[in-house]
Specification:
Elements lengths: L40 H19 L4 E2 L2 E2 L1 E4 L4 E4 L2 E3 L4 H22 L2 H6 L1 H17 L2 H8 L5 H26 L5 H9 L5 H21 L1 H7 L2 H4 L10 E4 L1 H4 L24 H4 L20 H13 L6 E4 L1 H6 L3 H8 L2 H22 L4 E7 L6 E3 L3 E12 L5 E8 L5 E2 L4 E4 L4 E11 L6 E11 L5 E10 L2
Antiparallel strand pairs: 1-2, 3-4, 4-5, 6-7, 8-10, 9-10, 10-14, 11-13, 11-15, 12-14, 15-16
Helix pairs in contact: 1-4, 2-16, 4-6, 4-8, 6-8
Length: 478
C-alpha cells in the first residue's frame, strides 16, 4: 500500500510596518548646479583658453596648404596630412610619440599645478563654459535661472528654454560637423551637406559627436568630471605637498562669520571669511573649497577670483583662497620660496624627459626619408637561366612617394659580382602615390655557388635628397 507523506507548510509571520519607519536611500538625489558668473584673473585665463582652443578647432580645417586642406586625416586613402607633412600607416611610431608626449605633459602639469588641463583646456570645461554663457544670455543670471526653473510653465519660460536649446543644438551640430571635417575635406563636406548627399558614416559621426557635446555640456556637466572622468580618480597619485592647488587658508579664515564692513573682526573673534558662500556658488562642480582639497575640484580658480572680490569689498588682504602648496601654507613661505620648491627634482626630470622626446621626434621628422620601398622576391617566377648563360630572378618592388610632388627613383642592386638590373631601373611615382613594379635582376652563372645569396637594393631619389636600402635574396639554381 502506498503511503503519501506530506510536510507541514512553513508559516511566515507578517510583521507590521511601524508608522514612524523611514526608507533611507543609499544614493543622494542629484541637485542641479547653477554656477554664478565670476570675473577675475583666473576667469580671464579660462576664457582666453576657450577662445584659443575653439579658434584652433573650428578654424584649422578651413586653412589650405597648397591645393589641399592643411590638416586632414584621410582614412580612405590611409594618409595623414599635417601641413607639409604626409604620414602613412607605416609612420605609426610618430603617433606613439605624440601619445607619450601628451601623457608626460599631463604628468608634468599635474605635478606643477594640479588639474590645469581640467580647469582650462579640457573640452568638457570649454564647452560647458560656452553653454553656460548661452544660458546666461538667454535666461539671465543665476538667481533668474533658479527662479524661473521653480515657476510653472509660462510663455516666457517656454520661449527662453526653446531658444536656449536651439542655440545649444546649433553649436553642438557645428562642432560635430567640424570634427568630421578633419576626416573629410570640410569644403567637400559642406557641398555634400547642401546637396543632402553626405555618406551614412559622415551623418552618423556628425550627429554622434554633436549629441555628445549637447548632452555633456548642456546636461551632464559636472557629473562627467565627478563620475565619468578617470583622471579625477588617479590625480592624487601625481600630487605631493609641493603641488600648486586651489587652497583655502583656514588659519586666516576661521572662525568664519557674517559681519558688516565696518565691524572689527578681531573684536568679534572672527576670521577673514565672512561666510558669504560665494565660493560655493561660483564652483562649476558645486563643492565647498573651505572643506579642503576634494577630487571634484577641477582647479579652475573661480573660487579664488570671487573671494578676492569679497576681500576687496571688505578691505581685507587678498589670498584667502589662492593657488599655493601644502608646504607653503604650513611653513608660511613667501611667493619666491614657494616657486623654488615647486621646481623640485621630480619636475626637472619630467621636463628633461619631455624635452628629450620632443627633440628626438623633431629630429626624426627632419631626417625622415620622403619615400618608402618594399622588396619581395616574386614567388610566382622561379630563378631561371636566360640567354647569355645568366641567372635571372624577378622581384616585386613597391615604391611609395611621401612627398606632394612627382618623383623619379633610380634602382640599383649590389651583393654579387656582375649583378645588374635588366628591366627599367628608373621609376616615376606621382605625388603621395605608390607604384608596384616587377624588377628583373641578372647575374653571371659563375658569380656564386648554387643556393641563396644575400643582395641589397639601393633606391635613390633623382629629384630630392633621399636614399633607401632594402635586403633580399638572389637564388642560383643547382
Amino acid at each position: 500500500m502506498n503511503t503519501e507523506v506530506t510536510t507541514p507548510k512553513k508559516i511566515i509571520p507578517i510583521v507590521p510596518v511601524e508608522a514612524d519607519e523611514e526608507l533611507i536611500s543609499l544614493y543622494a538625489a542629484h541637485e542641479k548646479i547653477y554656477p554664478r558668473s565670476v570675473a577675475g584673473f583666473f576667469s580671464n585665463w579660462r576664457w582666453g583658453m576657450v577662445f584659443l582652443t575653439q579658434l584652433v578647432f573650428y578654424g584649422m580645417p578651413w586653412i589650405e596648404w597648397g591645393q589641399r586642406q592643411a590638416i586632414l586625416f584621410d582614412l580612405g586613402s590611409r594618409r595623414f596630412y599635417i601641413f607639409g607633412l604626409v604620414l602613412y600607416p607605416q609612420d605609426f611610431i610618430y603617433l606613439t610619440g605624440i601619445l607619450v608626449i601628451s601623457a608626460l605633459s599631463l604628468f608634468l602639469f599635474t605635478a606643477v599645478a594640479g588639474r590645469l588641463w581640467c580647469g582650462y583646456a579640457c573640452p568638457q570645461t570649454v564647452y560647458t563654459e560656452i553653454f553656460l554663457w548661452i544660458e546666461k544670455k538667454v535666461e539671465g543670471d543665476r538667481s533668474a535661472r533658479m527662479r524661473r526653473d521653480g515657476q510653472a510653465l509660462s510663455l516666457d519660460k517656454v520661449w527662453r528654454k526653446a531658444a536656449k536649446h536651439f542655440l545649444w543644438l546649433a553649436v553642438a551640430l557645428w562642432t560635430g560637423f567640424t570634427f568630421v571635417g578633419y576626416f573629410t575635406p570640410i569644403k567637400e563636406l559642406g557641398v555634400e551637406f547642401l546637396h543632402m548627399s553626405m555618406s551614412s558614416w559622415e551623418v552618423f559621426w556628425t550627429f554622434f559627436y554633436g549629441f555628445a557635446t549637447y548632452g555633456n555640456a548642456g546636461f551632464m556637466r559636472e557629473q562627467v568630471c565627478k563620475h565619468m572622468c578617470p583622471y579625477a580618480r588617479f590625480q592624487s597619485a601625481m600630487f605631493d605637498k609641493d603641488t600648486l592647488i586651489v587652497t583655502y587658508d583656514a588659519e586666516r579664515g576661521e572662525p568664519r562669520g557674517a559681519r558688516s564692513r565696518k565691524a572689527d573682526a578681531k573684536a568679534l573673534n572672527l576670521g577673514a571669511c565672512i561666510d558669504c558662500t560665494l565660493c560655493v556658488q561660483v564652483c562649476p562642480t558645486g563643492i565647498d573649497i573651505r572643506k579642503g582639497l576634494q577630487y571634484e575640484c577641477i582647479g579652475c580658480g573661480a573660487c579664488a577670483d570671487v573671494c578676492d572680490t569679497v576681500m576687496d569689498k571688505m578691505g581685507y588682504e587678498r589670498g584667502l583662497v589662492k593657488y599655493t602648496t601644502e608646504n607653503a601654507m604650513k611653513n608660511k613661505w613667501t611667493t619666491a620660496q614657494t616657486w623654488r620648491h615647486v621646481f623640485r627634482p621630480r619636475i626637472l626630470i619630467y621636463t628633461t624627459v619631455l624635452l628629450g622626446i620632443v627633440i628626438a621626434m623633431l629630429v626624426s621628422l627632419t631626417m625622415r626619408t620622403p619615400f618608402k620601398v618594399n622588396v619581395v622576391r616574386d614567388r610566382g617566377v622561379m630563378a631561371r637561366i636566360v640567354s647569355g648563360g645568366k641567372i635571372e630572378n624577378v622581384y616585386q618592388l613597391q615604391v611609395m612617394n611621401a612627398t606632394e610632388a612627382t618623383q623619379n627613383y633610380k634602382i640599383t642592386v649590389t651583393g654579387l659580382p656582375g649583378l645588374t638590373v635588366t628591366s627599367d631601373n628608373v621609376v616615376m611615382v606621382e605625388s603621395t602615390q605608390a607604384r608596384r613594379l616587377a624588377v628583373r635582376v641578372q647575374a653571371p652563372f659563375e658569380a656564386a655557388t648554387p643556393g641563396p645569396h644575400p643582395i641589397q637594393f639601393e633606391i635613390n631619389s633623382l629629384d630630392s635628397p633621399g636614399q633607401l636600402s632594402e635586403k633580399s635574396v638572389f637564388l642560383i639554381p643547382k
